[in-house]
Amino acid sequence: MDFSFLTQALGEAISPTTAAYALAALGLTVHFGYTGLLNFGQAGFMAVGAYGFAITSNALGAPFFLALLFSLIGAVVFALLLGIPTLRLRADYLSIVTIGAAEIIRLVAKTPELSWLTGGSAGLDSGADSLQALSPVPKGLYGIGSLTLTDKDVWVMIVAWSIVALAVLFVWRLIRSPWGRVVKAIREDEDAVRSLGKNVFAYKMQVLIVGGVLGGLGGMIFVLPRSVQPDNFGTQTTFFLWTIMLLGGAATVLGPIVGSMIFWVVIVATDGIVSELISNDLLPITGVQGGQIRFILVGLALMLLVIFRPQGIFGKKSEVYFNA
To answer: pTM score, two decimals?
Structure first.
């Protein structure tokens, strides 16, 4: 058997894809882990961020920072449109509404009538040239261990993980502020918080915006090395994010980062193992069927995490909202 796929799997730990999912999962941690908002529509925020950046870069020829600003504004607007009519719903109803909203975003992006803007099912160029224009990395090939990367890959990786580091610092400080103590109190008992004169709805809206902006940033980073495809933001993306968050710890700052690294290393390694078994006739299934094994494993992992270790790797069991 050829085990060269292990190099790719280990390299996935520092890839822009891992950084993108880490950011989006960090936003989900702000929503669910710290505030108790059962958001199943984080993929929608990623889609808004990705399309906001790509459309602004392609249609307007905007520079990177202006396209980034439009991406963030799009995430804020989506949070307001989603939150104003729904944040007074109970957790189970909120989860249904958010997953439906994310699907609406994906299907609108796919509709042929808007293909002039979104590219429809064919997708859209990510507009990464505006970022590459700022690159200080000398052209050439670079080796990181056994990995070989181009200068473009290295620059996207540097930008992606720099944004992750800034986001982690921002959330860490925010949660330890008086604002953070209020939102954690809302997770435990929002009626008690309301009785103290706090506007619970306003705090929930702020939480939805903060976590949504992190999701939008994650979506933008996710498409930088590739084109924008609407099916990349389907329901499976949201469940990947939930698995990552629960793996690292739902009420921790570093949990989503480490969880994303572990998740993508395991996913890529599993794909490589299954492909090798199929090619050597050791597994009696087709390549298409083998590709579905990742979804089976994610589903099993999510169930086992919730049952046996809902606090994740770094979390505390006393802070897990499932046990509230």
So the answer is: 0.92
